[in-house]
């Protein structure tokens, strides 16, 4: 073999290796780039999830640590507790009272912000401001409003001659008060997401619709809303997951943070906290955590199913239902 | 965290949490043990106001080979979470950890995690019941007492005057008497005058006073739960609710309404541990007429107070013990009383003129030092507080609240209490 062919062979090998490198680069790099999220997620999301399952099968004290293996006993005990079911009821009630008005109000606010307002940035920032306020601070402010005896709302009701509402005693008023805090904090945030979706709707559609004689109301319902459906579904799913995990607001609603003397506003997360930190029974707390996890998965799956159906029909809706112009035929 | 956020936020939170874990898990263990230039570094963790600020400087001057680093938590809850978490983790605690009497029973279970602090030097330094509460079954003293909360009765002399009752604190003490019946009877008299002001703030606060006068209210000394069968508890429950139905403002202590009520003539009297004076003064700023009577229904009562412990995690337990002993000596505790009003638990401090001569301007210049010292001496019961004391007492507080806010009848609420206690397992 001559020296020249040897050099050639080496060069070819090098080129081949470079090729292979760039091939790997193309194939593997994207995964490398997104890996930090998944590594961190595995560390602080997946691992605790598995560990919680392990804890839920044991007697486990906050300080004393691991005790005997008890199988599914913690789950049985917890499911037999009336407070578990009350918490479940409260969680869904507060979730519905907050999520539904929140999404509707957010769309309405977004629609208003979508107009050509003076000082656009000012209004948009203004809407987001409540989101910046810490939930604890929100709770402090709202607790002044929702005081049973000396709260602002009840004082106003009394001056008009109406009875005081017992915010911290009756179930529905307490849920309403907590939902108000949640809505205060999240409506503006969702409004901005909706606003972004609205602005992504091509303006020609509107022009065409207006030429066809559609009014504002008509374009909103027949154009804006159908085109925003994916965003609406996204917001609904995220508010579902968040809504089922409401903690700060009910915890700060009174000075004890246990959800009331009859558990009027105890949510599942508060119940977990009570079991884990008040009773120091980590086994039962973990069992409830897992039940909550399963409930959220169930609801999310349901949401996903419904949203698939809706988005499928929404595509059709746009194509099949042409805007009927008024006057001109 | 309320909402499951978008991925970027998840990542940010994840990162922050990971760093927080690293920071909280590893750092303190390192810095509490390190010796700098031959100096021993001792960390002291307290909460709220212990009044120790100037004292650390003084200790370092007297002991040049020791550096004291103070850590202060804003609330006792925060301190408790920190303590239990790190106790569970097995590292990261300070060399001297302050604890509140409320969590003492829970910690006594794990008394092997704390250095036995008993020594001849501190023998008989504290009021007997204060020291007894910090001693475990094997006779180990796990904590040095700092302050206590002897209870008197605070009252509004202006409202008393409006109802035609005496206002002078000695006469008021006679009026209130020294039994619960006489205290409630005085309330009935007050209500009869038609002032339309409730007598006391809440059934729950009154319950605290009543229940702390039983040796074994909820648990036997061996930890057996007797709360639901104990006739004393049921009787106390009924008597407090009887009184509350006509005399209570139905305000839950520490609620926003309760705080606001100080500015609205919410109630005329309240059971009043020493540390409550500062809280009343803060909430009732601008209101004149508060005073304190040298009596307490049913004898004496103590509510709250703190201790210093040395966790076995400390790398310098001897030095930490010496520091804790010095801080809880009568002289130092008196200086803390002067700066932050924490009422000392040391026998010698209770007799010192510095304490006995102190007065409180807000409370009509009452000789609070003298009054509280007498109240401390009147405490003759050390209620047994086992592991389940606090969850049970919590359930009882809620039972009383349910009756006060009329969401349940007295019997229903008791049934719920029984269920709750059973659920504690």
TrEMBL record, chain A:
<keyword id="KW-1133">Transmembrane helix</keyword>
<feature type="transmembrane region" description="Helical">
    <location>
        <begin position="122"/>
        <end position="142"/>
    </location>
</feature>
<dbReference type="GO" id="GO:0055085">
    <property type="term" value="P:transmembrane transport"/>
</dbReference>
<protein>
    <submittedName>
        <fullName>Sugar ABC transporter permease</fullName>
    </submittedName>
</protein>
<keyword id="KW-0813">Transport</keyword>
<feature type="transmembrane region" description="Helical">
    <location>
        <begin position="186"/>
        <end position="206"/>
    </location>
</feature>
<feature type="transmembrane region" description="Helical">
    <location>
        <begin position="227"/>
        <end position="247"/>
    </location>
</feature>
<dbReference type="GO" id="GO:0005886">
    <property type="term" value="C:plasma membrane"/>
</dbReference>
<dbReference type="InterPro" id="IPR000515">
    <property type="entry name" value="MetI-like"/>
</dbReference>
<keyword id="KW-0472">Membrane</keyword>
<dbReference type="InterPro" id="IPR051393">
    <property type="entry name" value="ABC_transporter_permease"/>
</dbReference>
<keyword id="KW-1003">Cell membrane</keyword>
<feature type="transmembrane region" description="Helical">
    <location>
        <begin position="287"/>
        <end position="306"/>
    </location>
</feature>
<dbReference type="InterPro" id="IPR035906">
    <property type="entry name" value="MetI-like_sf"/>
</dbReference>
<feature type="transmembrane region" description="Helical">
    <location>
        <begin position="92"/>
        <end position="115"/>
    </location>
</feature>
<feature type="transmembrane region" description="Helical">
    <location>
        <begin position="30"/>
        <end position="51"/>
    </location>
</feature>
<feature type="domain" description="ABC transmembrane type-1">
    <location>
        <begin position="88"/>
        <end position="303"/>
    </location>
</feature>
<comment type="similarity">
    <text>Belongs to the binding-protein-dependent transport system permease family.</text>
</comment>
<dbReference type="Pfam" id="PF00528">
    <property type="entry name" value="BPD_transp_1"/>
</dbReference>
<keyword id="KW-0812">Transmembrane</keyword>
UniProtKB/TrEMBL annotation, chain B:
<dbReference type="Pfam" id="PF13416">
    <property type="entry name" value="SBP_bac_8"/>
</dbReference>
<dbReference type="InterPro" id="IPR050490">
    <property type="entry name" value="Bact_solute-bd_prot1"/>
</dbReference>
<keyword id="KW-0732">Signal</keyword>
<protein>
    <submittedName>
        <fullName>Extracellular solute-binding protein</fullName>
    </submittedName>
</protein>
<feature type="signal peptide">
    <location>
        <begin position="1"/>
        <end position="29"/>
    </location>
</feature>
<dbReference type="InterPro" id="IPR006059">
    <property type="entry name" value="SBP"/>
</dbReference>
């Amino acid at each position: 073999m001559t020296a020249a062919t040897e050099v050639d062979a080496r060069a070819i090998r090098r080129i081949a290796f470079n090729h292979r490198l760039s091939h790997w680069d193309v194939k593997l790099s994207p995964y490398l780039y997104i890996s930090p999220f998944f590594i961190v997620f595995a560390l602080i999301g997946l691992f605790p999830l598995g560990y919680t399952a392990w804890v839920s099968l044991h007697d486990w004290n906050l300080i004393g640590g691991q005790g005997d293996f008890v199988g599914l006993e913690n789950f049985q005990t917890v499911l037999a507790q009336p407070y578990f079911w009350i918490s479940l009821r409260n969680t869904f009630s507060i979730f519905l009272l907050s999520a539904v008005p929140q999404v509707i109000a957010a769309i309405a606010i977004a629609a208003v912000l979508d107009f050509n307002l003076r000082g656009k940035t000012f209004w948009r920032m203004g809407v987001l401001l409540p989101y910046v306020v810490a939930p604890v601070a929100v709770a402090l402010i709202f607790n002044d409003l929702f005081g049973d005896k000396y709260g602002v709302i009840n004082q106003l009701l009394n001056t008009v001659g109406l009875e005081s509402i017992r915010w911290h005693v009756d179930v529905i008023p307490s849920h309403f008060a907590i939902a108000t805090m949640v809505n205060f904090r999240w409506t503006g945030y969702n409004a901005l997401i909706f606003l972004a979706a609205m602005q992504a709707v091509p303006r020609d559609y509107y022009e065409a619709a207006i030429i066809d004689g559609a009014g504002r109301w008509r374009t909103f319902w027949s154009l804006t809303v159908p085109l925003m459906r994916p965003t609406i579904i996204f917001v609904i799913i995220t508010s579902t997951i968040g809504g089922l995990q409401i903690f700060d607001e009910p915890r700060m609603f009174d000075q004890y943070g246990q959800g009331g003397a009859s558990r009027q506003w105890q949510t599942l997360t508060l119940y977990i906290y009570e079991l884990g930190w008040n009773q120091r029974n980590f086994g039962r707390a973990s069992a409830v955590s897992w039940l909550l996890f399963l409930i959220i998965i169930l609801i999310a799956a349901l949401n996903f199913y419904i949203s698939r159906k809706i988005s499928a029909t929404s595509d059709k809706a746009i194509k099949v239902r042409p805007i009927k112009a008024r006057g001109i035929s | 965290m309320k909402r499951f956020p978008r991925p970027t936020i998840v990542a940010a939170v994840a990162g922050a949490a990971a760093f927080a874990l690293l920071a909280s898990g590893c750092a303190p263990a390192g810095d509490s043990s390190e010796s700098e230039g031959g100096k021993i570094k001792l960390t002291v963790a307290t909460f709220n106001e212990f009044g120790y600020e100037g004292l650390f400087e003084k200790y370092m001057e007297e002991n040049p080979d020791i550096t004291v680093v103070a850590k202060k938590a804003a609330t006792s809850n925060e301190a408790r979470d920190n303590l239990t978490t790190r106790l569970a983790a097995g590292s990261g605690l300070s060399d001297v950890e302050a604890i509140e009497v409320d969590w003492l029973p829970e910690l006594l279970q794990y008394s092997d995690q704390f250095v036995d602090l008993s020594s001849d030097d501190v023998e008989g330094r504290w009021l007997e019941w204060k020291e007894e509460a910090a001693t475990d079954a094997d006779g180990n003293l796990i904590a040095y007492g700092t302050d206590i909360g002897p209870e008197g009765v605070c009252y509004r002399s202006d409202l008393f005057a409006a109802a035609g009752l005496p206002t002078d604190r000695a006469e008021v003490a006679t009026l209130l008497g020294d039994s619960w019946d006489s205290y409630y009877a005085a309330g009935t008299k007050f209500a009869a005058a038609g002032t339309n002001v409730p007598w006391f703030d809440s059934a729950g606060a009154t319950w605290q006073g009543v229940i702390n006068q039983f040796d074994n209210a909820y648990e036997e000394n061996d930890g057996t739960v007797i709360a639901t069968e104990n006739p004393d508890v049921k009787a106390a429950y009924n008597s407090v609710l009887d009184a509350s139905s006509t005399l209570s403002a139905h305000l839950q202590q520490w609620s926003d309404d309760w705080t606001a009520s100080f500015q609205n003539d919410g109630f005329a009297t309240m059971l009043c541990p020493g540390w409550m004076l500062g809280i009343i003064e803060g909430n009732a700023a601008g209101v004149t007429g508060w005073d304190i009577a040298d009596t307490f229904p049913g004898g004496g009562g103590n509510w709250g107070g703190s201790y210093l412990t040395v966790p076995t995690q400390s790398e310098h337990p001897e030095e930490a013990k010496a520091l804790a002993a010095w801080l809880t000596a009568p002289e130092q505790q008196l200086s803390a009383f002067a700066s932050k009003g924490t009422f000392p638990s040391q026998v010698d401090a209770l007799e010192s003129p510095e304490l006995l001569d102190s007065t409180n301007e807000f409370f009509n210049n009452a000789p609070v030092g003298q009054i509280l010292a007498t109240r401390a001496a009147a405490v003759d019961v050390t209620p047994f507080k086992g592991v389940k004391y606090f969850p049970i007492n919590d359930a009882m507080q809620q039972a009383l609240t349910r009756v006060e806010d009329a969401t349940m009848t007295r019997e229903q609420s008791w049934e719920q209490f029984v269920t709750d206690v059973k659920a504690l397992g």
